[in-house]
Amino acid sequence: MKTTKMQFGFSQKLLTLAVIAAFAPAHAEEAEVAQLVRPESYVSAGLGAATGDTNDRAIFGQYNGLRENDSNLLLEFNFIKRDDTKGLWTNAEGHNLGLDNRELGFSQQKQGDWKYFVGYTEMVRHDPRTINTGLQNAETTTPVVMSLVTPGTGTDVNLKIKRKALSAGAEKWLTPNLMFVVSAKNEDRKGARLSGTGVACMPAVFSSIPCSSLGAAMLLLPEPIDSKTKQFELKLNYSDEKLMLSGGYYGSFFNNTNRSMNPQVSGNLVNPDGTTLDTTTTPGSTLVGYLQQPMALAPDNQAHQLYVSGTYAVTPKTRTTFKYAYTHATQNEDFGSLGAPAGVSNLGGVLDSNLVQLGLTARPMEKLSMLGSLRYEDKADKTPLALYNGAYTNDLTSSRKLGGKLEANYRLPDNYQATLGIDYASVHRDNPVTTADIMNITPPAISPLTGLREDTNELGYRAELRRSMSETINAALSYEHSKRDGGSWLIIEPNNTASNAVGTYPMTMLDRKRDKVKVSIDWTPIEKLSLQFMLEDGKDKYSAPSDKGLRDTGMSSYGVDAALILSESWKLTGYLNQNTQTVHVDHNVGYMAELENINTSLGLGVIGKPLSKIEIGGDLSYLNDDNRYQQSMATGAPIVGGGLPDVTYRVTRLKLYGEYALEKSAVIHADMVYQSAKINEWTWGNNGIPFTYSDNATVSMQQNQNLTFLGFSYVYKFR
Amino acid sequence: MRLFFKALIFCAIFGSPMFVTHSSAADDATEAAATPADTLIEVAAPVEAAAPTESAQTLSKDLVLRGDARCTQCHDESDSPQLLAIGKTLHGVTADVRTPTCTSCHGDSDKHVNNTGQVKPDRTFGKYSATPPAELNAACLSCHQKDANRHLWMGSIHESRGVACSSCHQIHAEHDKVRDRRTQADVCFTCHKEQRAQINRLSHHPIPEGKMGCSDCHNTHGSAGPKLMNRDSVNETCYTCHMEKRGPFAHNHDPVTEDCSICHNPHGTTAESMLKMRPPFLCQTCHTPHLPIQSSLTGQSPPSSSPGWWSSPAITQGRSCLNCHTQVHGSNNPSAANPAPQNLFR
Lengths: 719, 346
Known about the structure:
heterodimer; A: mainly beta; two-stranded parallel ribbon; about 5% helix; globular; B: mainly alpha; 3 domains; elongated
């Protein structure tokens, strides 16, 4: 043996080591490949804490579950198991488990055969504004109004709406061509939202009551929410070489526990000038009688839809698409004690809708592609008419919409590509016909509208030229023009010619001319730098039987985006955008409003890996939203109070994260968010003077909100 | 035998991970000057500097996908580890006979293979790909058009504007950002920049918070609805979450039944409830103002008003017009008593 060893010149031990060493790289390779191709699971646990109080976090914490508590558990997991031999996936995941917007899900699927999932989600929307009120039984259907002696001395109420949703679904391939899909979702909503009631003496409403004996008052009453929505869908999908077809049923159901809100006023109220509004004698007692009338809340309703859609390849280069859907929606919530007309117990609301959509795409020549589509939607409101307000019936919402487009795309020499398109859209509304029955009634049935239109038609043209100038630069220029007009106007008060000449007509029915131009450029000057430039400008001009109402609107937008790869480990991104929108409205009462919104946003991002065990990243974003409300008088007279100040919203957010690899399968993850938000609005107050309701209730939001959030998590990864 | 064992020792020394596993940056240099050790390893898994022969390909093992050896003999864990991550995805399940191999999407790419990468594959999916989007998409749609969610892709705005599946999807990544609600919007904002600014406004859907994604409302693969809405209209899409607005009501509000987006910008505004404009200005684009005065605020000199009429701040501030017309989405109150529910008061 020794001789043998001598002969080889190696010991057995060395030989063994050599063999191991020789095959070790292969095993290492396999392990490395396995790491690259096997899905990864993780469990993450940690703690997060934010500075400030709930007022500092009102904007930041609207939806992210971080408003109410200073510190929160940060718990997440994602477990993925895959059986490669069977193609079987099992996935369980949970996100935000320590917060009020947690999500849990479980699913299994055998690819190409079957799949099912179950999901549970919670989400809370915290209203960023705080109500200060003396209201008793707030957020119930029986609130009791008790005036505050001084605004701001009541109880702070932060409204929120909590949604809890449970969903489930399954898919099964019945044959290689046929698939069955089923899904269901139930969502419970509880909480309250801003609402209220008000009464002002207006002839249209209180024609029989002299204004001097009524007065006016407004109350802030949170609307209680306790409802369920359910959705079910069953679908059968068929596919072969040429035909793909899907047909199914979709049902959706809304159920509201609260039928009405019945406010009570206890004690006196407050006039706008701060004096007491005595509710024991007229006009105060009359006013309170009106304020205490029940308010109807959203009624139960349901809709059932049957549909079929699909696509068919007529030839290899010509394909059609189609959809037909029939929807039957009803609303028959019992009116209960709300005071329905005799013999009517519910609305008996019925809406039947039919939708047909057809599309055709073709490539008749190598360089030419074309498409055309047609869409027709008929909504028939079959709700029976009843006199719900003396002389007035309910109004119906039947409509027919027809839309279509034709488009041709041609590849020109020198890498140019041209697109020409025509778009058409028309709307026919039956509503004015219904209201015609009640026209010439004083006061008008639809107040304060001046006229309605049954038909509007819009025809538009567009052209686009694209050019791929090189492998590193693409550019596109497009122009759109459209014109909307319609049938004759149905004037609500035809005899009131003087008023109609300066009346306001609905913006959706006005004649409109629209022009829009857009330029975009994609440029990669060097391999590691890409830039995008975008410029857009558009104008709408409106015209109506009068020279009042909406006159014109405008928009312009420009921006640049950049992405830079510094190295394999470092990447930078950035953007700058500014969007401007304008609205010009002339009012029949002699003043003009010129509204302008200027929205400027800026972002910078970085991702880097300075060391093999450390990964970091960050985003800095800035937004300034400036809304201007310029008013002027036709007579040249000064604006009362100097007009309205700007409303501005500015938010700067810095988000940083870092990961340190403790070992191959474990990292420490850190998050830091700094947010500074500033809101300046006149909606709920002006110059430090709160807008007060008739019980001295006020609404506020902290103007400057600064906070820092820090979170640390331990993340364990496994396969 | 002696030669065999010498070779074995050579493997032991030079075949260690240090030499086998090299960074992709060093690939070209390594391939250009193949070491003897490399040559030995090639016996088991041939990686040829020149065009691979048929026999060499046959000797290669698939790494991830069925039949991927043609590609992974070069694009292996050393050369392109990020490409192998496709194995973590649904495409990487070889037990599913429908799953593709590299050439299913990239084409046979004979010239690319025969010229060791000097020529691009038949189909590349990068930003400046020379392959027309329709051809790129055909590779995906050959399987995925069977999904009913993509039946209306042809003729949709994204299809006709030349958007490729790979413009949004990362096929090789375990985490495809656009399929995750928490990261999806960032992908959409690559083109839809106006919406990127809007979702950061005060009143917004919970998109920045990751509780909603663009696909909760839009089917980017084509739909029968306008603006690629998931359901057949804007309203029907909104009703999936806001079903209480559906009615019909005893007293409807026409624009509400026609299109929610007449008044709301669902991507975000600075006004309450994502209203496009702050009332009363929004309401006054259709309705005549009540008062013969302009809007004014608490604390300003109040304009004169008719006795008993509410003051100008009351239609400007608070909930503005909605202070009284609170049921602006419709009222199902059948009562004939004042104040008339017909005017959406209660």
